[in-house]
Amino acid sequence: MQHSASVLPLAACALLGAAGVVGAPAVLWLRPGGRRMLVCIGLGAVLGLAYSSTRAHWRLADQLDPALDGATISLAGHVAGLPTVRADSLHFLLAPAPPTPGVPTRLSVSWYPRPDTPLPTLVPGQRVVAELRLKAIYGQHNPGGFDYAGWQFARAVGGVGYVRQLTLAGPTPDGFAGAVDRWRQRILARIHAQVPAETAGLLGAMAVGEQRGISDPAWRVLRNTGTAHLVAISGLHVSIVALLAGGLAGWAWRRSATALLRLPAQRVAVLAAALAGVAYGALAGFGVPVTRSVLMLLVACAAMWSSRRPPPGHVLLLALLGVMLFDPWCVLAAGFWLSFGAVGALVVVLSGRRGRGAGWRRFGAAQLAVTLLTAPLLLVLFGQVSLVSPVANAVAIPLVSMLVVPLLLAGVFLPFDLPLSVAAWLMSVLMALLDWAAGLPFAVGALATPPLPLMVLALAGGLWGMLPRGTPWRALGWLAWVPAMLWAPPRPAYGDFEARVLDVGQGLAVHLRTAGHDLLYDTGPSYFRGGDAGERHVVPYLQGVGAVPLDLLVVSHDDKDHAGGADSVLGDVGAVQVVAGEGVDLPGMVARCAAGEAWAWDGVMFRWLHPAPNAVYREDNDRSCVLSVAGAGGSLLLTGDVAARVERLLAEAGRWPRSEVVVAPHHGSRSSSSDALVAAVAARHVVFSAGYRNAFGHPVDAVVSRWQAAGARVWRTDLHGAIRIAVDATGVHVDADAHPVRRYWHRPRAAGARLTSPGPIE
Description:
The structure is a single chain. This protein has 24 helices and 22 strands. The protein is an alpha/beta fold and 762 residues long. α5 packs across α15, α6 packs across α15 and α13 runs antiparallel to α16. It is globular, with a radius of gyration of 29 Å. The two termini are 27 Å apart.
């Protein structure tokens, strides 16, 4: 359901729901066995489809009205959840009250004030009046890229607002949800006041589930060592709280003979553990791992209350059902798959075995199971697998579970700062060790993302290989990994090439590959609110197609919409050689592009057309590296941000080659795509890389018309998503990549739209 481009009509949802309810009693007439199981699975699928589609209709109805997209209005409401304060900005969720027609019930609000404007102190539940410029949520469309629109949709956010003016309005209201969030905020403030900022972000995530304080370098270390689960509140934290609460309640209850006559101490301990688990889940914000852990705890407590011992697999399935009923969009989160995948691996490897065996052997088996059975998920979700994960987790899990978490919880619930300080010191030591492990040359194995059938085969084979001894052909299960490990995406033939202009918003990133080489031309923009397109879109795409490392990275010039993602690309993907325009500052050996230099890869010719050696240009855009790529069936021209004066100089010198496809200079600005360029290249296709509703109005209508009048077909990343260009012996083929990745929450884009904004917006 969550991977479809449309949802079922409400009438069909009602019919499916009715059919499922009517057919449910028929299960009771069937004998236990395979037929009954198949009928149950079918009924579950029917009811699940009806339920999730109905929920999807409700959420789609709670999106920003297109008529208000780009409008500035004044809204009253209250702060929902924890606000995030950064050095130069403020971010929070706004729940408008009273409801305003066309405005969703939750808006993601950001404020980037002038440097001399103090940021107000917001608390959860705080009433505010804000003058907001509203924006619908669109995001980018790239193969394997981050789905920003899907992420916001799963959070029940229906629109985005940018503050023009903000006023606090009245006292903080009373309410349970607001009180819990204010408690979480006080805990975060205490952690940040006692420990260094870098460690405070990690401890804040482990204490109250607030992960926005973790820096990008720290995330990279955790991801490359396979230890990101350590900073997600999960069964470890919930279990510790439940055990402490249950143990203390049972101990206190046993001190009273009268109390024991009324209710056994074991049941009191179970009840206290369940209540403590739910309370801690609320404190942690009820994310997917937390919800799964709390539900599993409640199922186990209910079984103990009734003196039953359900199989661990049944408990896991009941928790899975509860999480999906609570949040049908949880399947869009990586945490859902990793959380249930890790627990499922433990259930497989630790259940159904005779004898206990040595503790270290069981621990090692559990570590191996989690590592191997989550590897296909990590490969699909992140395009890489940590090869140091087993050793890193063997050190990190005992340290965190036995020392860091108990000390952190003691520091949270007790009025003493020493436990927090010790937990912070231990976490800093651990992160230093993980940083060293992440820097090892063999720390990460990057593979192209195989097709779904091969990943399912690998996962099934791993599960079969983890079954108890005596299972037929158990050792052969691991052979199912071979097709996924050896798979590689098809590449162009000798003399052909393929290019993809990625949808990176208001910027440029073009991946070009031949039969045996990969080139990236520009890396996309850095974002005004933090982060960059390199990390969010370019790196996942390159890892998904197996372009790791790159043979050549080109950064055409030093504008942040072209060079903003360079550090992320070099850090996560790497490049054998880097060529950059004058003024671009990158680590390592960087060569400069110079007109006249050329080389050949696999029968495809590459030639620099600009800038001339030793030439001096006043404007940074005019120093852009211009690259011509020619194969047997056609050619491609990458122009950077050169302006009309450079275009005319090259035309007068006869240095513009005819090209079937041109990536238009400067995103289609009025200062480029002159008559001289358009006439000289005689392109059949022109591609504009620009952000949807960007503040500059790119591409300008006059420029688009100029190319169309010359006979070129227009392609736009702001309307079509990523653009694929294939050049082979049969000619040039251009198409849009957006259609295969469309989901029902993706809004259609319309030409001619424009926003006015103080800074670039994704």
